UniProtKB/TrEMBL annotation, chain A:
Gene3D superfamilies: Tetratricopeptide repeat domain. Residues 88-97 have a biased composition (Polar residues). It comes from Nitrincola tapanii. This is Tetratricopeptide repeat protein. PROSITE patterns: PROKAR_LIPOPROTEIN. InterPro entries: TPR-like_helical_dom_sf (IPR011990). Residues 79-107 are annotated as: Disordered.
TrEMBL record, chain B:
It holds the Pfam family UB2H. Its main location: membrane. Signal peptide: none annotated. Keywords: Antibiotic resistance, Carboxypeptidase, Cell membrane, Cell shape, Cell wall biogenesis/degradation, Glycosyltransferase, Hydrolase, Membrane, Multifunctional enzyme, Peptidoglycan synthesis, Protease, Transferase, Transmembrane, Transmembrane helix. Residues 74-158 form the Bifunctional transglycosylase second domain. This is Penicillin-binding protein 1B. One of its GO terms (molecular function) is peptidoglycan glycosyltransferase activity. In the N-terminal section; belongs to the glycosyltransferase 51 family. In the C-terminal section; belongs to the transpeptidase family.
Amino acid sequence: MSQKWIPLLAGAVFLTGCATSNPFSNVPIEDRGGRPAAAPAPLPTEVPGVIVTPVDPGMGVSVQPIEVTSVVRSQRDLPPADEMWQPVSPQIQSPAPQSGAPMQPAPQPLSMPAAIPSDNTAVVALLEGARLDSEQGDLRAAQTRLERALRIAPREAEVYYQLADVKRQLGQFLDAEQVALRGVGVAEGQRQELRRLWILISQIRSEAGDLAGAEDARNAAAAF
Amino acid sequence: MAKKRAKTSSRPRRSSAKKRSIWSFLIGLALKLSLLGAVFLAVILVYTDAQVREKFEGKRWALPAKVYARPLELYPGQPLTLADLRLELQSLGYQLVPAVNRPGSAELGNQRARIHTRGFAFPDEPELPRRLVLDFQGERLQRIRDEVAGRDLPLVRMEPVLIGGIYPHTNEDRDLIRLQDAPDYLVDALIVVEDRSYYSHFGISLKGMSRAAWVNFRAGRFVQGGSTLTQQLIKNFYLTSERTLSRKLLELPMALVMDMRYSKDEILEAYLNEVYLGQSGSRAIHGFGLASQFYFSRPLPELDLHQVALLVALVKGPSFYDPRRNPERALTRRNLVLNLLHEEGVITAEALRQSLEKPLDVVQSRSLQKGAYPAYLDLVKRQLRKDYRDEDLGSEGLQVFTSLDPIVQSRADQALVSTLNTLEQRHGAAGKDLQGAVVVTDPQTGEVLAMVGGRDTRFEGFNRSLDAIRPIGSLVKPAVYLAALERGYTLVSPLQDEPINLRLPNGDVWTPQNFDRQTHGTVLLHRALARSYNLSTVHLGMEIGLPRVIDMMRRLGVERHLDAFPSLLLGAQGMSPLEVAEMYQTFAANGFRMPLRSIRMVTTAEGEELSRYPFQLRQQVEAKHVHLIQYALQEVVREGTARSIYQQLPSNLNVAGKTGTSNDQRDSWFAGYTGNRLAVVWVGRDDNSRLPFTSTGGALPVWTALMKAEKPTPLQASRPQGIEYAWIDEETGLRSDPRCEGSRQLPFLEGSAPLRSVDCGQFNLPTEAPSGSGADPDAGWFRNWFR
């Protein structure tokens, strides 16, 4: 059904394009609270009737660069912003400056997501304690401590790394692998953590006898 | 032959000494009788000894399992307000005082709190009692300072709130204490008031009994009992079973035996834990430890003199002197105890004067914490009964550590109750008898944080979170769409929102309709889900096939049997709120299924680990497919059926969720999550009658009220490997450009985004994009993409 539909529509678009009036020329402009700044400006092209929403934030469009790891959808018709685009560009490696912050209806102060370990002394202390527990062979104690850390900072990849490693040492290979894979999801965008996690997954798999899987994980690690 | 000889030999002896034989007969009889008596006594002795031992040793350990809430972790940077802390401290029975003086007390300021924690013997490592200064800033805890050690601490665990027990069939409850835990004056007061010669008698006190008899004789009625503490203990042992005469007669020998066998301190300790001190409904309050919680909501060692005196006063008659029902009598008797203590020189005149001035200080609500979490305890018990025998749960004194968050629980209770009250007012007669259920979990760990089983949040009966199996309506749709996305559909695949007739196996024809009874022609997949269109969903589900939808639901965590009827696609299947939470948990955890957990660990009474329920998960759906559905679930809240959420909540929460209304509007559902909270709400009626509102009018306001109080962290849907974002034209679903009107970014599996693009003139632009702020690299990047 969809295969039929797409060419048909594409054809229609093509045809209207030929008639030099793109599909949006007839689309009524969204009412955006009646602020003059929001009035769409015609593009300086020869094509009459083509209306493009300007990119210049001064014209009422804000572009919100966000961290590479987050995909945050915006609400289209939230005053006072017309459009809040949040392009996700893989090129951006560091958190973007706050200059393009969204013009949202003054959000209440919110608790921010779990901080990175250097900020969160509690998690640092728990991770350190768990490391000592592990070294002394008390894997159960380490596990308990890491689960405490997980509750406090569930977006901290290192917690998953250590928890997976403890489960590996306990011989719970399937659990260990799954925890590490979850860590991979959490570590998205942190190359070093991703590399360590994939190396750990490779180790878990080879200890569990899954040599092909271990090889896959090794290759995945090599990509970071 | 031997017989004959005996006969012949006996005859002459009898005849020769007739007189002597009478004596010998009498002596023999006496001997036999005394032997019999000795045997009888021995039997009694052995019997009483066995009874005493059984009761003393067996019953001392018949302890109900203790169920604890999660301990509150305090750490710098933690989202916690002073109001939250106050709630927690109240649940723990802390005393709010002008100046902190001992464990279990706290002083709360504007931005600062000073608390003296009690410490707790956690199974992993003990948490010591500490004097802490907590600095708050806004809605965060900023700093924790140990006043005694004079240093900042990274992490402190408060003691966990005891939320309930699992009682044996006799419904006895106990909070075991050791003799050394008894507060000052408790033992002195007991001995002064109940049994002055306790340390010198042999279990019974003849002096005491004769004095009591004399007093009673003179008064002409029963005024004074002569029982020693030992005898009282024995009486208490049999308090719950029948009280027969034989038991009564056995009391004296048993008291003697007990006094011989056990030390005075052992008997006293047993007494402290056994004596009957009150009644809470069907639950008997035994022992000073539990009585302290029952009357004062505080641990026994923290009681003041006047409170200790009241408990001792109650020994004589917990019902007659009940401080809640008969405060005058209780006060008189308490003051009598205080005066006796002074007369005996145990307390000073000053202490007496101060204590006499104090009120009874009994907490009004009979049990501050116990009984406050019936639905959650129900969940915990069901889990425990899978792994433990009933006898063990009721007698072994097990410690059960759960993940219940009392703060979240109280917010969930309040959100449901207040919203339903408002709805009833608004809808008048049509809004009568509304019921509801709420399940709150942590989407990152799979722990159940709170559970509301109905509108009467303290009702220990029908638990709707677990047992109300109701059609889930549109809550099923994300599973249908996810199955389709796995099969190669994209968020912009066009769906047909056209009438459909399906012939069912029984010959009936099923003609589903959209909620607004309209058809919407061709709609893009993400929009069909956000707007919760029925017809396009049925078309889609039938295209991919019911078995695939069922398989997806199973992987998401639905364990019950699912019939492969087309009506499944619109949520005709009944499920409990907890089951729905289990399913949505998998969405929230990027495709990892985490069995929902309410118990973290079970230990023996001594804190030795018996079983733990660790963090476990299994990837059931690839993260990239779940990412697509998460986008659509966020769209539901931004622009779809749940958009009223952002009238109440900050829009940067990025809530993902789905509304659900069952057929004929009998059930109102909402399931949704943020970064750290997932909640499923059901609103409906027990008689299954039609509601005057849909999901947006019932369950959604409850959910919103909960989250408004909860202030959760925003959802961060991290972009997994294999996902790319492309600008898409909203109307056609074709590729577009950020500069084109009506375009938006949508996620796609790499390589699956549409290739064809609309043309809004973006290809005719000058090579350099208009100078703007951060948009330049992106504009270039997107333009390159097309070429």
